[in-house]
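Appendix B, example 12.
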Amino acid sequence: MRYRDRVQAGQVLASRLAAFADRSDVLVLALPRGGVPVGYEVAADLHVPLDVFVVRKLGLPGQPELAMGAIASGGTRVLNPEVVEYLGVPASVIDAVAAEEQRELERRERRYRGDVPPPAIDGRTIILVDDGLATGSTMRAAAAAARQCDPAAVIVAVPVAPPTTCDALKGDPAVDDVVCPVRPEYFSAVGLWYENFAQTTDEEVRDLLDRARRAAWSRREPVSPQEGK
């Protein structure tokens, strides 16, 4: 299966998350940039709030697509030991890349959120959304950072990822469950599973977040399963 675009991917993903609809304890946190269009559709279909959770991949110098690990809001750093140990990457190189990515992480937070404070995570069920996973290092950083904020549960939800990545995330102590409709054995790259995988811009991210905050389904007070009994 290939998705038409991130909008369709979000709609398909939302159908697998129907159990979380209309719950006052649920919050969708999308990883920018590509995860935000997907997360917007999920939040709209489930009638729950949407926000961003900024994570930056730590790419290997000279091979930026090869992830040494990732950093996330709150100072969390997750390393990919297979890459770091196999290639013998020194700590000084990791620190230099992390410092550069930290500056970009802070820039994006200012750009996307502006003066709006980050949402409360403690006690809530967090659905972390991206447009797909390869190694999963970025999502692992996001889950680890979210877990530090004492949520009730952390659910990873993505339209496509290799089975090995899904299995590894499901075994991660920071993750309670993984929802992924498409798990191809021969994965190669996230973009190959979309007909339209055009880059999402900062402006599109900000627009979707603004639309979500203005939407009736984001402002209303839904009834949680416990309250509805």
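The CA atoms of residues 55 and 72 lie 4 Å apart. The chain has a mean pLDDT of 90.
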